[in-house]
């Protein structure tokens, strides 16, 4: 049972490190995934008054 817990903790740590690496290195390899939207979006809003 202890081996299973250690394996799961190891996989969680590896997944966390992979996520951090993707956040820092990802924009270099996938710039379109990290780009901000290129068009402005505006919606009319109706506010109710008392």
UniProtKB/TrEMBL annotation:
This is Uncharacterized protein. It comes from Yoonia rosea. It comes from the Bacteria.
